[in-house]
């Protein structure tokens, strides 16, 4: 069952936690920008800290992402990969998100994926 995340008016999301499969799946819609970034980062950092330690962010329904949103993604990836969790961090993207991430050459660090299914395959392997 998906938990509704309390984010902002312009950014909405849900969280599915699968303990037995060792992952958290965040599905987000709307705008990941300077307005929504502080709340987004705070809420997700808290959830990442709770575990499981493999994180999938489904941004395929995101309409816009700016440099603040990119900065938040980098920080969350560091928390997931380098913190106590030492898990994986993958982002399911759309063309807009992919273009923005590639512009700053972060596609490998942020582990961009084409679908949630592809991201799940990476966890199991």
TrEMBL record:
Name of this protein: Anti-sigma factor antagonist
Similarity comment: family membership: Belongs to the anti-sigma-factor antagonist family.
GO molecular function: anti-sigma factor antagonist activity
Pfam families recorded: STAS
Region forming the signal peptide: none
SUPFAM superfamilies xrefs: SpoIIaa-like (SSF52091)
CDD domains for the chain: STAS_anti-anti-sigma_factors (cd07043)
Domain STAS: from-to ranges: 13-123
Source organism superkingdom: Bacteria
Originating species: Cylindrospermopsis raciborskii CS-506_A
Transmembrane residue ranges: none
InterPro entries: Anti-sigma_ant (IPR003658), STAS_dom (IPR002645), STAS_dom_sf (IPR036513)
């Amino acid at each position: 069952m998906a938990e509704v995340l309390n984010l902002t008016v312009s950014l909405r999301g849900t969280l599915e936690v699968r303990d037995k499969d060792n992952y958290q799946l965040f599905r987000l819609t709307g705008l990941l920008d300077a307005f929504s970034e502080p709340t987004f980062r705070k809420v997700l950092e808290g959830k990442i800290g709770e575990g499981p330690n493999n994180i999938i962010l489904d941004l395929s329904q995101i309409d816009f992402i700016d440099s603040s949103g990119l900065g938040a993604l980098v920080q969350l990836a560091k928390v997931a990969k380098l913190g106590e969790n030492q898990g994986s961090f993958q982002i399911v993207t759309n063309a807009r998100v992919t273009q923005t991430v590639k512009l700053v050459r972060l596609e490998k660090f942020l582990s961009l994926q084409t679908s949630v299914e592809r991201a799940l395959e990476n966890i199991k392997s």
